[in-house]
Amino acid sequence: MQPIDSEAQSGARAGQAGSSLALLPRTPEQFGVICGLPTSLTYLATDFARDLMQRAHGSCEMIGLNDLSPATQDKLNQVYGPTLALAEVANGDVVNLVASSRFRVLVIEQGYTEACQSFMSLRKSSELDTARAMAFAQIGRHALAELPAAVLIRAQLNSQARHLVHEIADSLNIPPAVVGSMIEERDLHRQLIEVLVQHFPSDADEVSSDPGALLQDLGAFYGLPSSPPPTHWRLPLAAMIEAPPPHLPLSGAIDLLGPARQLICGPYLYIPRGRWKLIARLSYKGTGSGDTLEFDLTADNEVKATSRHLLFENASMELSSEFEIIDPFHPFEFRTFLSAGSIGGSIIIEAVELRALN
Question: 30: left (phi > 0), else alpha (psi -120 to 50), else beta?
């Protein structure tokens, strides 16, 4: 595939949130950012943190900090006292803003697969929609976890809930007497999973269910903020989509009979910043008859590479291209098109792989 130079387009993305730094309050010891995936565990940890702040400081405001929309900026303008900001699906502007501040960032560690199960239980969303939503959320979480002020909070469901409370309290400089009082009053000597299910009964189903192959494969790629960065990923083909309606998950051969059209799209997932190599393997069954396929690779909200291939009788092909992810908050997509009408034949996507180059 032919790479496309994107250097001229990348410069416009830097520092969009810098002008909003003045919106944040000037008392970092009374302002904290809770960052986690949008799951019940994150919400429970946030509840613990807010309770601790209220007990220690007399009050604690809560704001959502997932973007820098006018509504979010209005709320930030009104913040003067003890405050917690919840960043569960933080975008790049939020990461830039927090990176320029001195505020404490508490990052809740939770595995991608476990988080997807919790999300589906809470939101009743489909597996594929959940996979994409959580892929975006974990890009923001990982970026915030890399900041010098970030503290990883490890929540073990089978340990006592008080251990999570102590980790949060230490990060927020809460006096021990306040912590002990809260633990006793809320009976947090129990296992964290018991407290979690008490607050979010739907998570009882998540604990007893087995994740599907798609979520397990994606979980192995995305890992935890404390895990080494991924180096190789064989993309689950179930995350790819047949472009024509009804847009079913890719499950086998694609019939070429018919007019020129887009054949395959997706996976609309998010991959970390850095240089990558895409390798795609396809097979074609048919006589050729002048059929031509076009492919492109999009990321960073732009086309990174394109290629065009004339099909020969019962042929196999391998495509590869190197590209760079500068802004990981845009989805990655590998698209396939039929250039002109075809009288028959079919293609099968055998494998799509990503390999880290740095």
Answer: alpha
pTM score? 0.88
Q: At what angle do helices 112-123 and 213-222 cross, to 10 degrees?
A: 130
Distance CA 308, CA 290 (A): 12
Tens of pLDDT, residue by residue over 165-221, are 999 999 999 999 999 999 999 999 999 999 999 998 876 665 556 778 889 889 888
Query: What are the angstrom distances between the C-alpha of 220 and each of 42, 202, 216, 232?
Result: 21, 25, 6, 10
Phi and psi at residue 290, to the nearest 5°: 80, 5
DSSP alpha helices (H): ranges in 100-234?
112-123, 127-145, 161-172, 176-185, 192-199, 203-208, 213-222
Q: How many Cβ atoms are within 10 Å of 330's Cβ, its own excluded?
A: 18
Residues 6 or more apart from 100 whose CB is under 8 A from it?
17, 18, 21
